[in-house]
Amino acid sequence: MNALFTDAMTLREVDPGVYEGELDKHWTIGPKVHGGAMLALCANAARTFCGGQSGGLEPVLQPVAVSASFLWAPDPGVMQLVTSIRKRGHRISVVDVELIQGDRTAVHAVVNLGQPEHFPPDGHVVPLLSANPVVDLMAPEPPDDIAPIGPGHPLAGLVHLGEGCDVRPVLSTMAPSADGHPPVIQMWARPRDVAPDALFALMCGDLSAPVTLAVDRTGWAPTIQLTAFLRGLPADGWLRIIATCMEIGHDWFDEDHIVVDSLGRLVVQARQLAMVPPKR
Length: 280
Known about the structure:
- The protein is mainly beta.
- It is built from 4 helices and 14 strands.
- Helices cover about 10% and strands about 35% of the residues.
- It has a 12-stranded antiparallel sheet with strand order 1-2-6-7-8-5-11-14-13-12-10-9, covered by helices on one side. Strands 3-4 form a two-stranded antiparallel sheet.
- The N and C termini lie far apart (about 35 Å).
- The model has no long low-confidence stretch (mean pLDDT about 95).
């Protein structure tokens, strides 16, 4: 099966408001489907249900806010997405989405659809206020010595997204913290053969390895809840991602993602609550 991200986001309507999609082994972390890919698929189902694929004169509604609760971790394979409209408004519509595998709901998402920040055609925009740290921390493109996740890469056996997109993490930022400072994990990402879009940017809001690596807690760190904001549509090129946290407890930790496009514009913010892996 083709591992391209655009194919992974493909939906087939099987009943009114009910879609079928598939996330195969290329969109997994370890044996389980990547949470960000599932969030993006839910966002696509909501957008499609509200006419996001139409060629009409009205602007396409985009998933400007997606709040997802993860009920259990599905296996790679076919999934069903059931949508229901909660609000159809002039500026904002709200759609519930359930991602189901077999007879169990794996993800329940609430998707707010609207128009993200409008960037001018030349790409240059100055926000009214910005505290975005990514532009000063990371160049628009990864340095030549930052290797993509693929055969021979230290993360290749765990992160299987490398066939569908080019992911280049700065491995030194994933090392345990020697001074107790919070981690600032850095990486670049882009899909293969196409420009990044809203759905890819949303997936990147969950792309980093768990920040618990900073305290030498490795292993499965299941996400309980993830909320992502699509602040703007990305320009073509690499997306820059940093992952940070406020606190890693003994049971729970938070993880924040900031995603910036090649022009330095904020495109996604995301925050999740997850479980700390047990001490080994």
